[in-house]
């Protein structure tokens, strides 16, 4: 792709590094920004810089937050005895959009995947286990995607807490095997949360 301006070329190259954005789409976005008032471009740039510099991760659940503790964990009306375990922040957003879950979350930051060099120590599994050992949690809900990596992660965590007096469940398989939570429709995802099953039962059926 030839550019008549090195400035446009640089902007397009940077924009095209975003997921799902090719060079042509990046060019359309850059040209759109170029047509906007200068202050609009400044607002966008400042919002991105501020987000990158000031964003925090919740000390409790590791969700993205503007403060040390996220709004969900700080909400006293939520049931803090039920923890939904998810892979990343996009899954928190997907489940919250269903309006069917009133507990809190624990964001692992990924899934166990030896092929990709991701082991248990690189995730927040130990902090989750520590929470459970405090004795204030009554139920853990596994809400990881139904992939081999997701199932491996579920089983690893289950083995760490199997001897503790806690209910361990997993979302119902209304989510197709191999699907990511963020792409599930809200009705299906909401039902899968409400119709969750004991984790031991899911082991027998897999």
Automatic annotation (TrEMBL):
KW Transit peptide (keyword) present: no
Pfam families the UniProt entry points to: RecR_C, RecR_HhH, RecR_ZnF, Toprim_4
Keywords: DNA damage, DNA recombination, DNA repair, Metal-binding, Zinc, Zinc-finger
Domain Toprim: 81-176
InterPro entries according to UniProt: DNA_Rcmb_RecR, Rcmb_RecR_Znf, TOPRIM_dom, TOPRIM_RecR
UniProt superkingdom: Bacteria
Coiled-coil regions, chain positions: none
Zinc finger (C4-type): 58-73
Family to which the UniProt record says this protein belongs: Belongs to the RecR family.
Family annotation (NCBIfam families): recR
Role of this protein: May play a role in DNA repair. It seems to be involved in an RecBC-independent recombinational process of DNA repair. It may act with RecF and RecO.
HAMAP family for the chain: RecR
Name of the protein: Recombination protein RecR
